[in-house]
Amino acid sequence: MESAVDELQPPERLLMGPGPSETHPRVLRAFGTEPVGHLDPAFIEVMDETQTLLRETLRTDNQRTIPVSGTGSAAMEAAIGNLVEPGETALVPGNGYFGDRMAEMVRRAGGTPVTVEAPWGEPLDPETVADACAEHDPSVVGVVHAETSTGVRQPEMAEITAAAHDHGALVVADCVTSIGGVEFRMDEWNIDAAYAGPQKCLSCPPGASPLSVSDDAMAKINAREEPVRSWYLDLSLLDDYWGDERAYHHTAPINNVYGLREALRIVHEEGLEARWDRHKRASAALQEGLWALGLEPVVDESVRLPSLITARLPGGLDPGEVVETMRAEYDVEIATGLGAFADEAVRVGCMGYGARRGPVLETVGALGETLARKGIDVAPGAGVSAATDEFSR
Ligand SMILES: *Cc1c(COP(=O)(O)O)cnc(C)c1O
Question: What ligand 1 atom has the least distance to the C-alpha of 98?
Fold first, then answer.
């Protein structure tokens, strides 16, 4: 009998938005590998290898470095839900969308979020963080290293953790859009808990998300008076599975772990620093292409994230219409701006397997044609030409 639903046949899009990014073909093959049981010694070996590679990629020695079952938001909620206890105060950044999400998670953990203000499109100032610590006495300070909503890279991470530690607070860092693409040094910067996602610069489909927690942070979790409100994300329970015991907690998403392991193996082969450099170079070419087409950067160059560029459109064009034409006519996915930039800017990702010559040229080429179609006075190939020049510099 014929099925009522056709065989799966998604369109072939080039994914150059804020994530998911292009999947690496080797990662996709790893996803198709036959699963074994989640307690099989063969899988336990895969777990160990994945943890080792994760530590290397996050630049940490933390024993508790695991893939959380779920997307980046699950790893985020694990970090916040475990570290923030009812009645405690947590500082969250006010300069982007993901700080707001942190605040909501703090509230649901029973804590009180206090926003450290900075304008959208700018980073936090460590002095403002220090002042807020002195005023509010938080137990946790949240910071977004790579703010995907605006394209800001938070500099001075070590200064921020120093300010928090001076006041006895632990630091939770969001490195979802930096892991494997933008310089991030968990231990050197004294970060207590860091979470990430696989579908940005690691070029792995979403579903198993990196989380690393220091011994100090784990000591706070183990000393909690009230159990973590989420059973699923309770790190003291997850320790039984990912720690020495290897006891059942929940069934790990076997194939997601296979995929993440392969993505991290690729990072290891390429070299982390070479990879940071590749993202910088591909992003520089992408940016030259955008500026040649008349777009304008929203974020100052000194703190601009290589992996996500927010750019104002010329001629008052509607970002939603540009994104729609790019998708429908050219099969290229980019995204509109958010918050303060929603009506005027697009966001273009330069992540992982997409941070290469081919995808960058295809994106700026499609954008040039889109702008020309919409009546902007620009040579459609101007972006490709400028990006090519930058690549061959
Ligand atoms: C994508 C992203 C998240 C959320 O990850 P999901 O996988 O969508 O749950 C969190 N923080 C930042 C900075 C992100 O870019």
Answer: 11
Cα–Cα separations (whole angstroms), residue 27 to 24, 56, 74, 263, 349? 5, 18, 21, 6, 19
The ligand 1 atom nearest the CA atom of 144 = 13
Q: What are the φ/ψ torsions at residue 29 (nearest 5 degrees)?
A: -65, -40
- Does the pTM exceed 0.70? yes
Side chain identity, residue 29: R
- Ligand 1: list residues with CB < 6 Å: 19, 71-73, 76, 98, 144, 146, 148, 174, 176-177, 197, 206
CATH number of 272-391: 3.90.1150.10
CB within 8 Å of 105: residues ≥ 6 apart:
76, 77, 80, 81, 84
CA of 20 to the centre of ligand 1 (A): 10
Check if 25-269 and 272-391 are the same fold.
no
Question: For each of the chain's 393 residues, which pLDDT tens digit applies?
Answer: 667 999 999 999 999 999 999 999 999 999 999 999 999 999 999 999 999 999 999 999 999 999 999 999 999 999 999 999 999 999 999 999 999 999 999 999 999 999 999 999 999 999 999 999 999 999 999 999 999 999 999 999 999 999 999 999 999 999 999 999 999 999 999 999 999 999 999 999 999 999 999 999 999 999 999 999 999 999 999 999 998 889 999 999 999 999 999 999 999 999 999 999 999 999 999 999 999 999 999 999 999 999 999 999 999 999 999 999 999 999 999 999 999 899 999 999 999 999 999 999 999 999 999 999 999 999 999 999 999 999 999
- Which residues fall within 8 angstroms of residue 301, CB to CB, at 6 or more apart? none
**Domain range list for the chain:** 25-269, 272-391
Query: 88 is written with which tokens?
Result: 């405690």
Quick one: which atom of ligand 1 is closest to the CA of 177? 15
Residue 70 CA to ligand 1 center (angstroms) comes to 11
- Residue 40: CA atoms inside 13 Å, Cβ hemisphere, count? 9
CATH topology classification for 25-269: Aspartate Aminotransferase; domain 2 (3.40.640)
Question: Of 95, 148, 233, which is best to mutate to test ligand 1, by the most ligand atoms within 8 angstroms of its C-beta?
Answer: 148
Task: Give the whole-angstrom CA distance, residue 123 versus residue 281.
Answer: 22
CA-angle at 235, arms to 246 and 223, nearest 5°: 120
